[in-house]
């Protein structure tokens, strides 16, 4: 329950909750089932990042939210402190190398997240961003599978989970990391946060506690208390590094949901009848086969019959005219280039790169570039990434850079032509997974995208089954009419069919189906 008597008191007050200054702090990206479900992804294996020991703070400390930022988020976590060196230790022996357990708060500034991707160097490495304490629990006295983690903000419980909710047992982190480097006494492993992590503001007080309610004496770390304060001054210097930048994706992840962030819900994904229990954006094999068989011209005709006249993405041509494009839309939006905005949104892990990294199998990346063909909107590297992700294709009403190399990748691409200039000449990558306009047509995430040599069409998900069935039926009818014209019949009364020809066609159809 209290600091082990053999642990030396650290000279630096920042490390008062630890045996001393840690040589390494290793943090787990995603470890609790509740958090994984919230994020919509569950890792097969643990992944990690490092935090500097200079980020450690003791209970009662203040954390500064820098001027000009908005998304400082807390993450209550269980911290493991290594007691004896661990190198290549088996799973069954790993817990014996843990000396102590305590509470930690893995603060992160989402405004600085984009340019460091998963490394979190700037977003989680700031001074005071890793409070640890208040007291150490002797690891020998607790069951690692029965620890409890709770977090309070301004006195209200916001996180309450146990190690039974972990995807990976605590000992696995020790065993796994020891395969790659020696864990030394005093090293700290931050074991991830459950659901409930969210944004805090200046004046908020965050408290984290780890305890073992069923252990002798009900061992506890005590409350680790941190107060958020507002930073002063001019913020960050753009001449030496990336500036803070946020978008709705970052807001939703920082707050924990779009609803908590005050954002409208994303347009619903289509119900496409996969029946597999897998990714709902995937079209069922049956529906995909129908769409691959139906020409875009026929689909356009059926949509027009139902009052939809503005569903074609105009001004784009295929790099591979022989390839059919079928998939669900994943949207990416560019805005006109403005130099100050490109500095904050154009570099690093921007919206364009995030969209190509996040595209799923069967999705089509649809890019709004306002019909501006004066620069590229993607090149060969991003085409390769989309192809590796098994994306169904790419549609952009802007230009393509590295045209021949993109074509060589083989993924279906529709564009407004080739252009050698880079993105920043005309565009700023702004956001993704939002409603966009591409080629004069509104496209929402999850819309059905079909392309062939006639062009690209957008089908509302609720209509896709009805429209494709009607288009295929019309194809059969048109084929029968074409055969009659080839036999020498005039088109008058046949195209479109009058009552006499309609009766002949329906008789032929019944005969073909064996029902005549």
UniProtKB/TrEMBL annotation:
Substrate binds at residues 379-382, 401. The keyword Transmembrane does not apply. Pfam families: FAA_hydrolase, RraA-like. Residues 256-282 are annotated as: Disordered. Keywords: Magnesium, Metal-binding. Coiled coil: none annotated. Residues 24-228 form the Fumarylacetoacetase-like C-terminal domain. Its cofactor is Mg(2+). It comes from the Bacteria. GO terms for molecular function: catalytic activity; metal ion binding. InterPro entries: Fumarylacetoacetase-like_C, Fumarylacetoacetase_C_sf, RraA/RraA-like, RraA/RraA-like_sf. Mg(2+) binds at residue 402. This is Fumarylacetoacetase-like C-terminal domain-containing protein. It comes from Microbacterium mangrovi.
């Amino acid at each position: 329950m209290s600091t082990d008597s053999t642990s030396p008191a650290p000279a630096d007050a920042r490390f008062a909750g630890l045996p001393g200054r840690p040589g390494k702090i290793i943090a787990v990206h995603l470890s609790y089932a509740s958090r994984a479900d919230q994020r919509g992804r569950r890792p097969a294996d643990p992944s990690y990042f490092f935090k500097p020991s200079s980020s450690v703070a003791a209970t009662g400390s203040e954390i500064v939210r820098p001027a000009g930022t908005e998304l400082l988020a807390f993450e209550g976590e269980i911290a493991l402190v290594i007691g004896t060196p661990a190198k290549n230790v088996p799973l069954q022996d790993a817990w014996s190398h843990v000396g102590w357990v305590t509470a930690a708060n893995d603060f992160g500034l989402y405004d600085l997240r984009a340019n460091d991707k998963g490394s979190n160097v700037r977003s989680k490495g700031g001074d005071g961003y890793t409070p640890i304490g208040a007291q150490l629990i002797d690891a020998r006295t607790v069951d690692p599978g029965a620890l409890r983690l709770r977090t309070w903000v301004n006195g209200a419980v916001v996180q309450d989970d146990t190690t039974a909710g972990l995807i990976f047992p605590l000992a696995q982190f020790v065993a796994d990391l020891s395969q790659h480097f020696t864990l030394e006494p005093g090293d700290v492993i931050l074991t991830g946060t459950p659901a409930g992590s969210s944004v805090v503001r200046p004046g908020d007080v965050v408290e984290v506690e780890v305890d073992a309610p069923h252990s002798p004496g009900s061992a506890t770390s005590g409350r680790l208390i941190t107060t958020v304060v507002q930073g002063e001054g001019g913020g960050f210097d753009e001449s030496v590094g990336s500036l803070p930048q946020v978008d709705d994706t970052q807001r939703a992840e920082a707050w924990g949901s779009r609803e908590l962030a005050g954002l409208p819900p994303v347009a619903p994904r289509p119900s496409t009848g996969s029946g597999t229990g897998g990714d709902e954006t995937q079209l069922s094999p049956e529906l995909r086969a129908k769409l691959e068989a139906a020409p875009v011209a026929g689909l356009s005709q059926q949509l027009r019959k139902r009052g939809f006249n503005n569903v074609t993405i105009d001004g784009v041509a295929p790099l591979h005219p022989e390839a059919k494009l079928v998939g669900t839309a994943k949207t990416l939006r560019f805005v006109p280039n403005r130099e100050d905005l490109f500095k904050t949104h154009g570099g690093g892990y921007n919206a364009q790169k995030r969209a190509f990294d996040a595209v799923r199998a069967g999705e089509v990346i649809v890019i709004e570039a306002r019909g501006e063909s004066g620069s590229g909107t993607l090149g060969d590297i991003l085409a390769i990434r989309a192809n590796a992700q098994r994306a169904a294709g790419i549609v952009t009403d802007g230009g393509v850079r590295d045209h021949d190399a993109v074509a060589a990748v083989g993924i279906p691409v529709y564009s407004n032509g080739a252009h050698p200039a880079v993105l920043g000449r005309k565009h700023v990558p702004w956001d993704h997974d939002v409603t966009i306009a591409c080629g004069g047509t509104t496209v929402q995430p999850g819309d059905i995208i079909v392309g062939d040599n006639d062009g690209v069409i957008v089908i509302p998900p609720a209509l896709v089954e009805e429209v494709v069935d009607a288009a295929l039926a019309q194809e059969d009818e048109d084929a029968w009419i074409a055969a009659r014209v080839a036999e020498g019949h005039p088109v008058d009364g046949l195209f479109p069919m009058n009552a006499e020809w309609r009766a002949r066609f329906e008789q032929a159809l019944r005969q073909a189906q064996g029902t005549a």
